[in-house]
Amino acid sequence: MKSAKNILQPEHRALKTAVLVLDECNTLSFASAVDPMRAANRLADRPAFDWDYVTATPEPAMLTSALQVPGIPLARLDHCDLMIVIAGFNLVRHATPSLLAGLRRIANTGATMAGIDGGPWLLAEAGLLDGHAATTHWEDLETFATRFPEVDVRPDRYTVSGNRLTSGGAIPAVEMMLHIIAARHGAGFAARVSGLFLYEGAPEPGKPQSRTGAPHRHSALTARANAIMQAALDDPLPLAEIAKALGTSPRTLQQQFRLRLNTTPQDHYLQLRLAEARRLVTDTDMPLMDVAQATGFTSQSSFARAFRTAHGQSARDLRQNRTQPTHH
């Protein structure tokens, strides 16, 4: 195995990059890897990235949007400085012996290996994340940690661990790519790339992933309350206990949630639990009684009533009617 080259240092030479695109990855994850490189090349006085698309087989990769991406078959790729693995659904089916062997072969050349969305799962299956800090999408973190005990699994938005980079999803992947650009071309240049997307600056990579999509509306207080709630969906905490943990009063917490999110802490907590319940109903085969317990409902009847009110149909009907889910 060749010694790894540190790509995260000042360098004007174009970074030779292989973007490995798997069937059933989502388009936003794909764009999150590619567009920052395109934007960097546009702004630089010389190419910052030189990339090729790579596919698992000689056939083009088919994204969830039906977009096809033709590329060099992995078996024919000799080397690169950075390989970015982008994956989505059906990771077990994609983790073929030939794909995993191909990943190990490229890693053994000293390439930096990065994974986006389901990509970290495939890197871990290949044994390439053992001993490294890594993350994946929040829906899969617990399963990921159980399956790969040699990996230091973090709930972070993205991680950098030696020559291994992993991102929990599409938007943190933009942040991860900006991190690479900043390391190679300076923070000022990365800020200009960020500005092309009207992106106003990334949180710290170690900031935990959020299950809700409105991070900019939170205050510091409601964001911390939200994190406490997310960590205790199966055994909901009383409002007074959450307020005490935050060093504030229930009244102040109520006011902040009303001001920032136009809701109450109790209803926000309930919506978090019901969103998780919907995910478990549509994305797993967990018995509905266990779904109720996992989301903090002490009786099946109260769960059924709340679920129907929130989602317009019963959990049983939703599971019977489910189709291939849209990816994260």
Automatic annotation (TrEMBL):
<dbReference type="InterPro" id="IPR002818">
    <property type="entry name" value="DJ-1/PfpI"/>
</dbReference>
<keyword id="KW-0238">DNA-binding</keyword>
<dbReference type="GO" id="GO:0043565">
    <property type="term" value="F:sequence-specific DNA binding"/>
</dbReference>
<dbReference type="Pfam" id="PF12833">
    <property type="entry name" value="HTH_18"/>
</dbReference>
<dbReference type="GO" id="GO:0003700">
    <property type="term" value="F:DNA-binding transcription factor activity"/>
</dbReference>
<protein>
    <submittedName>
        <fullName>Transcriptional regulator, AraC family with amidase-like domain</fullName>
    </submittedName>
</protein>
<dbReference type="InterPro" id="IPR029062">
    <property type="entry name" value="Class_I_gatase-like"/>
</dbReference>
<keyword id="KW-0804">Transcription</keyword>
<keyword id="KW-0805">Transcription regulation</keyword>
<dbReference type="InterPro" id="IPR052158">
    <property type="entry name" value="INH-QAR"/>
</dbReference>
<feature type="domain" description="HTH araC/xylS-type">
    <location>
        <begin position="223"/>
        <end position="321"/>
    </location>
</feature>
<dbReference type="InterPro" id="IPR018062">
    <property type="entry name" value="HTH_AraC-typ_CS"/>
</dbReference>
<dbReference type="InterPro" id="IPR018060">
    <property type="entry name" value="HTH_AraC"/>
</dbReference>
<dbReference type="Pfam" id="PF01965">
    <property type="entry name" value="DJ-1_PfpI"/>
</dbReference>
<dbReference type="InterPro" id="IPR009057">
    <property type="entry name" value="Homeodomain-like_sf"/>
</dbReference>
